[in-house]
Design goal:
The chain is mostly helical. It has two helices and no strands. Among the domains are: 31 residues, no CATH class; 30 residues. The protein is rod-shaped. The structure holds zinc ion (ZN).
Amino acid sequence: MTMQGGNRDTGRLNTAPRCGAKTRKGGPCRAPAIHGKARCRMHGGRGSGAPLENRNGLKHGLFTLEEQRRRRAVLDLMRKARATLREAD
Ligand SMILES: [Zn+2]
């Protein structure tokens, strides 16, 4: 039997389950699927999109959702306090 790539034993690799996603050419993707998943690494086998939040991009936390909510609550409290003081006049 002749095989490209010298004498590497690629038998197991060639029997791995295939991805099968539809390619832009219309045919099925023939890349091996991620273990335990139905799709390959290019077709969502590892999940879709970036992980939630950019933890490594944080410098000080001023713009995290939690901090923005806290600031909004403080501003709202101050607004209500001013309104109350105006009524007391
Ligand atoms: Zn694929």
